[in-house]
Design goal:
Helices cover 50% and strands 15% of the residues. The chain is built from twelve helices and eight strands. The longest helix has 23 residues. It is globular. It starts with a helix and ends with a helix. The mean pLDDT is 90.
Length: 319
């Protein structure tokens, strides 16, 4: 792109799917691929956050910000949260939801490349889809929250506080546990469910390291840590069929495929296990959800000193 007019004309092209993102800085527009363009735009700034702080100070501390303080806050963060429009130009038009779905893989790859170029993470906040036949369609992407309720039966405020304290102390005392917590935090941000499965398996593997041995590999060690030697099969109902699968085995194989280049083919599985390929290809989020629960359990058991993996790690350090 040589000038503003050229960029503006490209932005008006249709059909197109625009993913508006914040968090990474680009100095100039760049073609990520022949059909994906990334265009830097004006930063969001921090005005909404500043307004929140202004209300917080007034409501809880009885402090009113002066107009000079507010203006200083606006100027301080005027260039923060830079925005990039990542645009996919399909070869043919379709309904907005179809265009968006078809653009997903291209946009994800583009955002990964931008993260590499900029060293910063992109966060999507809206889609604008132009078909060329109807008015543009837009869809906001507010951040998701599981809104988990930790307080309740068997987990009172006092018990929850003690659990938090034990987790903090475990992370302070053991850098391996702190590392596992960091991997878990990163995994929760992963948008690709297959990659999320791999990251979550890495969390489990990093905790189960002391259970590994000459005849015990990563998957076996993870199962020992989770007490999954027996009854470790998940059963899910998907599209009118029941699918049973060994989540640790599948997650380990996926991790090996993506991290080590080990082939993972349907032919490698027996007839009963091959049905899981439907999950891998069409509903990988169900595998990720199962691994997420395993990670949460493994982390809390370690923090509560009720994990065979922590016991094995302690024995190894003394040996």
């Amino acid at each position: 792109m040589k000038n503003y007019a050229e960029v503006t004309e490209q932005l008006k092209q249709s059909p197109a799917v625009h993913s508006l993102c914040y968090g990474a800085f680009l100095q100039a527009p760049i073609w990520i691929s022949p059909d994906v363009l990334a265009v830097p735009l004006a930063a969001l700034g921090f005005n909404a956050e500043l307004c929140y702080v202004e209300t917080y100070l007034r409501q809880f501390l009885g402090i009113e910000l002066t107009s000079e303080q507010i203006q200083a806050g606006v100027l301080q963060a005027a260039d923060r949260l830079p925005v990039i429009s990542v645009i996919h130009f399909p070869s043919a038009s379709a309904e907005p939801e179809v265009l968006e779905a078809n653009a997903r893989a291209n946009l994800e790859q583009a955002m990964q490349i931008i993260a590499w170029v900029s060293g910063e993470r992109l966060t999507e906040f809206a889609y604008v889809t132009v078909t060329g036949q109807d008015p543009p369609f837009f869809r906001m992407l507010p951040p998701n929250s599981r809104r988990r309720q930790r307080l309740g039966f068997g987990n009172t405020a006092d018990a929850f506080q003690k659990s938090v304290d034990r987790t903090r102390l475990a992370a302070q005392e053991d850098p391996r546990f702190a590392f596992a917590m960091a991997i878990f935090a990163d995994a929760t941000h992963e948008v690709n469910p297959l990659f999320k499965v791999c990251r979550l398996f890495n969390v489990l593997e990093s905790l189960a390291y002391a259970l590994k041995g000459k005849d015990i590999g990563s998957r076996r060690a993870v199962k020992l840590m989770l007490n999954l030697e027996e009854g470790d099969i998940c059963h899910v109902q998907v599209d009118g069929r029941e699918i049973s699968f060994d989540r640790i085995e599948i997650a380990g194989r996926l991790r090996d495929k993506f991290f080590h280049g080990t082939p993972f083919r349907e032919a490698d599985l027996n007839s009963e296990a091959r049905q899981v390929f439907y999950l891998i290809e069409d509903r990988p989020v169900l595998i990720a959800d199962a691994l997420l629960a395993d990670c949460e359990l493994a982390l809390v058991r370690w923090a509560n000193d009720a994990s065979p993996a922590r016991e094995a790690a302690r024995a190894r350090s003394y040996g």
